[in-house]
Amino acid sequence: MPRIPAVAPADASPLVKVAYKYAAHKFDEVPEPFTVLAHHRKLFVASARHELAVQKASTVLPANVREIAVYRVAWTIGCSWCVDFGTMLQRLDGLDVERLQHIADYADSPAYSEDERAAIAYADAMTATPTTVTDEQVADLERRFGRAGVVELSYQIGIENMRARMYSALGITEQGFGTDSCRVPWADDAAVTTEGPGS
């Protein structure tokens, strides 16, 4: 369970209830970060708008490159929720999720392309504290993806660092998106679940 309890649908504001229903329709379950962030209505709204805007704007990079870089950040930081959710997103994008089992050995694994390896190495360099990005690395990425692609990759890696660190700090763990069994934050309360976002 998260360190800050989820806001159950019965306790949520009308706006949050609508957001829960939308998320449940899109993902078959309400992502637990939503339910924790719902304690702060203004940040909840800001975060939702930002995530939607970033998703719409991120169209320069191939999905496989963008998603594997984001996944590597989650895996490196150790955010089990982000790894779980990221696996689902890759599956929904039609990407090969079996290759995720080889993420530790990406540099030598035939499961990854040269472009993917370059994006993963950049994710590692950006996620290191302090960062270890080099001029040569950025120049190589620019040759591969163009300037807009480097900006998009940097933005996506930066956002995932924020998500993964925040969710880990709040104790938000895997929810079952990567498999067929989802953990519902308010599942212990049958009455609330009946009236929950999926109803």
Please characterize this protein's 3D structure:
This protein is mainly α and 199 residues long. The chain folds into two domains: 9-56 and 184-194, no CATH class; 61-169, Up-down Bundle (AhpD-like), CATH 1.20.1290.10. It has eight helices and no strands. The protein is globular and about 50 Å long. Residues 187-199 have low confidence and may be disordered. One of its GO terms (molecular function) is peroxiredoxin activity.
Task: Output the keywords.
199 residues; AhpD-like; 2 domains; 60% helix; disordered C terminus; peroxiredoxin activity; CMD-like
Task: Map the helices and strands.
Layout: H1 14-27, H2 32-37, H3 41-57, H4 63-77, H5 80-92, H6 114-127, H7 135-169, H8 190-194
Counting structural domains, the number is 2
CATH architecture label of the largest domain: Up-down Bundle
- Biggest sheet layout: none
Order of helices and strands: HHHHHHHH
Task: Give the strand content.
Answer: under 5%
Uncertain runs are 187-199
What is the CATH level 1 assignment of the largest domain? Mainly Alpha
Cα-based radius of gyration, to the nearest Å: 18 Å
What is the fold-level CATH name, i.e. the topology of the largest domain? Answer: AhpD-like
Helical residue percent?
Answer: 55-70%
- CATH superfamily descriptor of the largest domain: AhpD-like
The averaged pLDDT comes out at 90
Basic shape: globular
CA(first)-CA(last) distance? 23 Å
